[in-house]
Design brief:
Blueprint (H helix, E strand, L loop, with lengths): L8 H9 L1 H5 L17 E7 L9 H14 L4 E6 L10 H7 L4 E4 L23 H10 L2 H9 L4 E8 L6 E3 L13 E3 L2 H9 L3 E3 L6 H6 L5 E2 L4 H6 L8 E4 L8 E7 H6 L2 H35 L4 E4 L2 H19 L3 H30 L5
Parallel strand pairs: 1-2, 1-3, 6-7, 6-8, 9-11
Antiparallel strand pairs: 3-10, 4-10, 5-8, 5-9
Bound molecules: calcium ion.
């Protein structure tokens, strides 16, 4: 990618206008970086979400707005919803090829192309959001993620988290393992592979198509995210039962991927702004989901008469056994996946005893409400 492509006319004008400011040692303008760069950059961000979709599309918007404000307009990002510039599941390729400089998505969508990517969204029966963040930011996860994306010319950042998801919407009750047989369900990533091994037929369908697929019987069930997002799609109008817990996605990390050639054109201060804006995006998104999942769950139960169901222990235990097998198989697929799994597991062994005596104990002390 040609560096000059990122330099707008306004950027050149801005650079000329600020030469005086750069010469003034009393002003701490961000423009006066080591490189002296005052270029402005206009980037595209492609996403896997419907435009402005609550929690997901809005978190991409929020990230772009934060970067623009923090950079004082030096890095402007135009956000595209799924299918506006490229289809939702072509975000990875679009950013690799430089069609867009940034992408906002979730790593398990790249399972077919980059199997090692799946770990960074979290794994079935794996870690909570805050545990996952501990691994990515402090336990070696981010370095491994960057290693996985490097051959594709991409630099990944954690940019959000949905928190725990729901098992999904079902048009038939799940009372035993037999009820999974032949179940056509939209469920992406390793969760889908686990369902397949349990007798179901997993499908990967973009979010925007879920309602119709469920209502017309193309699928018997779908997971999407949680009450906040599922209410927004009106999925309660297309299925009878709403099942928990979201065994397949206990705390799904969202990603911001950046084309490396584009990244390399940014001066160091803009790179730092992007990095910190992504970290802030993680907190903002998780807070948004936590609050609004509670609000939406209340609405689904009290205003829409949704029938809430817990998956039977027999089903959950079976899915967990399959998940453990799958994780071992995945770890043997490549040397890199083996290292990622070892890192993930080593961290889990550190964090789980702590979670057991802290979060888990405290949450269990709460009376039901
Ligand atoms: Ca999901």
């Amino acid at each position: 990618m040609d560096r000059r492509k990122f330099v707008g006319v306004a950027g050149l004008a801005g650079a000329a206008g600020l030469l005086g400011a750069c010469a003034d040692q009393t002003t701490a303008r961000p423009a006066c970086t080591e490189s002296g760069s005052m270029e402005t950059f206009t980037w595209k961000m492609v996403t896997s979400w419907p435009r402005d979709f609550p929690g997901l599309g809005t978190s991409a918007n929020h990230l772009a707005e934060s970067i623009s404000k923090l950079s004082n307009g030096r890095l402007n990002i135009r956000v595209f919803g799924g299918n506006e510039l490229v289809p939702p599941f072509e975000v990875f390729d679009a950013v690799t090829q430089g069609t867009a400089e940034m992408g906002h998505s979730a790593t398990y969508y790249w399972k077919g192309k980059v199997p090692a990517a799946q770990y960074f969204a979290g794994i079935p029966f794996g870690m909570s959001a805050q545990e996952l963040h501990g691994w990515i930011y402090h336990g070696g996860g981010l370095e491994l993620w960057r290693e996985v994306y490097a051959p594709y010319g991409l630099i990944p950042f954690l940019a959000g988290n949905s928190g725990p998801q729901m098992a999904g919407w079902f048009n038939r009750e799940i009372n035993s393992l037999d009820d999974l047989n032949g179940l056509k369900m939209r469920i992406p990533g390793p969760g889908g592979e686990i369902l397949k091994r349990a007798g179901g037929t997993p499908q990967t369908i973009p979010g925007a198509e879920l309602f119709t697929a469920l209502q017309t019987g193309i699928i018997d069930a779908t997971e999407w995210v949680g009450p906040y997002n599922d209410l927004a799609f009106g999925l309660f109008r297309a299925a009878k039962y709403y099942y928990y817990p979201g065994w397949h996605e206990p705390g799904t990390g969202l990603e911001c991927m950046i084309n490396k050639e584009a990244w390399d054109t940014l001066p160091a201060d803009l790179q730092a702004i992007v990095e910190v804006a992504c970290q802030a995006g993680v907190m903002e998104t998780l807070s948004d989901f936590t609050y609004n999942n509670g609000v939406a769950l209340r609405s689904l139960l009290n205003e829409h008469g949704v029938q809430l169901r817990r998956l039977p222990d027999e089903v959950l235990n079976h899915l967990r056994e399959i998940s453990d097998e799958l994780m071992l198989e995945m770890a043997s697929e490549s040397e890199l996946m083996g290292r990622i799994y070892a890192s993930f597991n080593a961290y889990y062994d550190i964090v789980n005893p702590w979670t057991t005596i802290s979060e888990r104990t405290l949450v269990n002390l709460r009376p039901d409400s």
